[in-house]
Amino acid sequence: MGIITPTNKSVLDLKGLHLYHSAISNCSMRPRIVLEEKSIPWVSHHLDLLKGETHSAEYFGINPNGVVPTLVDDGVVIIESDDIIEYLDHKFPEPPLAGTDAETRRVIHEWVKLASSIHVKAVKTFIYENKMRTKLGMPAAALAEYRSRQKNKELLEFHEKSSSGGFSAEDLAQSMRILTECFDRIEGELQSHPYIVGDSFTLADVAWIPLHFTLIGATFPFERYPGVTKWADRITPRPSFQKGVLKWCPKF
Fold it and tell me: Would you call 127 helix, strand, or coil by DSSP?
């Protein structure tokens, strides 16, 4: 479940739950929502994405991909937001967010993994092109330093493109196609029940509501998805969304 051995050994001495996260990161919103949904005390380690704080040598020693979030639980280090929220639900089972029977758990898990799998090639690409083009590109020296640390080919390719010339028309078309296919599916599910998987708020909703929130800020055309809009309006008043998302990022 995303558990790693960090090279920065200082985090191994941390006691309790510590979350390395960023206010504007939709991946960071996921564990913040779960932590608030379950009323779990946690220690914040906020990193500013716009200042490149996740790209430091110190943080790469904690998370080898140089991204947020990272959860440290009594010295156990878990990376990747999908693994983190499933880890939290397993360790703190009340209220249950991953389903109470095998089939429901399987379906929820698939939705969680799907949200994670499209992050770089669809979500990050769309948001960068439509919102962050002037904010996240790296100057040459910073990009060279990043290259020396980043071993993840997908992330390296993303930052190479975002820092030197931008994305191709093919990249952008792929991003839009993937997002449209996914939200078409979600719209279909929401025709028969109020949440993505049935009548209860689950990790499937936790995985997708931050994408909806940040994609709105990047002008994704949600007007074609009335069911998705009602679903988001249903979730927004939840205390876990208010504290886990809007407290940190009132508007994306």
Answer: helix
Structural domains in the chain, CATH included, are 3-91 (3.40.30.10), 102-238+242-246 (1.20.1050.10)
Beta strands in 111-157 (DSSP E): none
pTM: 0.96
In angstroms, rounded to a whole number, what is the distance separating the alpha carbons of residues 153 and 121? 12
Is the pLDDT at 1 greater than 80? The verdict is: no
b/e per residue 130-146 (b: at least 16 CB within 10 A): ebbeeebbbeeeebeeb
- Taking the alpha carbons of 218, 219, 221, 223 in that order, is the dihedral positive or negative? positive
- Smallest CA-to-CA distance from 174 within 156, 198, 158 is with 158
Cα(104)–Cα(33) distance, integer angstroms? 20
Element (H, E) at 3: strand 3-4
**What pLDDT, in 10s, does the model give residues 74-83?**
999 999 999 9
